[in-house]
Amino acid sequence: MNNKLKNKRIVITGASSGIGERIAWHVAQGGGIPILIARRKEKLEELVANLPVQGFWYTCDLADPEHIRTTFHSIFQDHGQIDVLVNNAGFGVFESVSDTDMNAFHSMFDVNVLGLIQCVKEVLPRMMEQNHGHIVNIASLAGKMSTPKSAGYASTKHAVIGFTNALRLEMSSYHIFVTGVNLGPVRTSFFDTADPGGEYKASVERYMLDPNHVASRIVSHLFTSKREINMPSWMEAGAKLYQLMPGVMEKVFRSQFSKK
Questions:
Q1: What is the pLDDT of residues 23-68, one digit of tens each?
Q2: Which of 2, 70, 155, 184 is the least buried, fewest Cβ under 10 Å from its Cβ?
């Protein structure tokens, strides 16, 4: 058991499946108190009922600012404080810019960026007052190295990385840790929306990360000063090379970049 988590109130958005669900399990196994947020009531009820400790759930549409406000108000009323916020909720649509409807761009930014920022804004005053806390923002390696048909999704994750880096510097004097998580493809239901035809998923199946392994890494770094978690390491190395020589990388890996 990770004693750092014992009795800590840990809010996880997008918690009804995938990485969020597995984070909830690892938090519970570490003695923490999972407080889960997602849209699907039935999935949340089922997950909480099967956790090894008592957990709590709240339905919330993270594209709705008022719903976010009322949800966090309820959490503070019920639990008094929040020790960790894991911003895991997000989705993508993999289409070319010319084919992507503006409503899809708005929706991705509403959830992936503005919803995430508002969740942070809801917890930040209390964390600053208690001089303690940890905020984990799950972004993507796509935010460091964009590829064709990911312009909308990658731009939201690029925004999350920038927001996270600035927040980390601002919170250092308040003993509030801020960690960014940048991932390659993960074996979750994310691709049901991002890639409904399944072509991209099939092409990267062998590279996909296990959500349980990702969740374990994230939870192991709670209440530490870990700046970033980047997975897989070989893809992070590729992102670093891309920053140094983007033209060469785009030429050499053009076919790989175009698999969406």
A1: 999 999 999 999 999 999 999 999 999 999 999 999 999 999 999 9
A2: 70
Structure tokens, 99 = 């084919």
Is 153 tagged catalytic? yes
CB 182 within 8 Å of CB 230:
yes
Q: What are phi and psi of 133, to 5 degrees?
A: 150, 175
Q: Of the residues 153, 200, 207, 242, which is catalytic?
A: 153
Q: What b/e readout covers 52-69, taking b as 16+ CB neighbours within 10 angstroms?
A: eeebbbbebbbbeeebbe
CATH of the domain at 121: 3.40.50.720
In total, how many domains does the chain have? 1
Give the whole-angstrom CA distance, residue 19 versus residue 29. Answer: 15
Q: Which long-range contacts (CB under 8 A, 24 or more apart) does 104-110 make?
A: 104/152, 105/152, 107/63, 108/152, 108/153, 108/156, 109/156, 109/159, 110/62, 110/63
Output the pTM of the full model.
0.91
Domain of residue 10, residue span: 3-257
pLDDT in tens, 220-231: 999 999 999 999
